[in-house]
Amino acid sequence: MMLSFPNNDGLLPKRPDSGFTLIELMIALVLGLLVIAGVGSVFLANQNAYRTNNALGQVQESARTSFEFLARDIRSASANPCGTASVASVLKTGGDSMLYSTRDIEGWDDATTVTALPASGAGAPVAGGGGAIRLASARGSGLELDPVTGPRANIKLNGPTTSVNAGDILMLCDVNKATVFQVTNYNSANEVVVHNTGAETPGNQTKCLNHPVPQAPTGKCTSFSPSSYLAIPVNYIWYVGENDVGGRSLYRFGRGQQATSGTAEMVRGVQEMEIRYHELGSNSYVLASSVSDWELVDAARLELTVRSRGLGGASGAGTNNQPLERVFTTTVALRNQQ
Question: Which residues cross the membrane (predicted)?
């Protein structure tokens, strides 16, 4: 058995100190920085890929929605539930300008030249935003007429409704004719739509809806049968305008059942809209300024420039932290042009 003895000063021998040298610490620091840099680069790459994919999804969704809205209105231009082309109006002059347009389709190469559109503020057309297209039609109101009484001096419905109010613009039609008028009152108790020559704006020239218009005071208001329809005449202009955050959007200006036109922002991110038109018998698509007869237009080619957007509607970043912009094109045929 071996024994240990203290050294000369009475203490046991010291063990060497343990730890990292400066060189070891520097090597560990460099390796850690390399790992962090690798993880950071992967994170940034994934972030950029997500941002780009998100921007591309926004652009594609905006284009798809815009084409869906525009195609629906273009296909419906000139349509009404009765299929008649003979449409008259008993409205007085002096009302909203969109109440008196005579064409069911009309275009402009520069939306800023359309006098009916707002001149400033949100919804005003922008320079460089392209053209505009106006589309008019009539849509079913979902209201049925009384099968016995039908329309006379007033229009008797087949049941109560909450969708008709004084001042509304409606259209009465059958297979031979149609007349646009303004509602002066809806009697919910008797389920009667009244269209007198009241004080509304613009008001009716006469309470009789027969053709020709205006009717003589002694004219009989019995030319529409009980099988007639009530429809809603709509008239809208589509264009690119400035939105409330300083960007651009696809806008729709006009009126439906209301007597006064209004502006509605439909799709954000649309920067420009160019429209070309095809006339029956032609072999090319032309700008609005080159259309010879709007009654012969049977198709429209739409080209939309769409840009990605960020929070609040501002331009969103795509590749290289720049907005992503794409151009989309589609062609829509008009179903109801004569």
Answer: 20-45
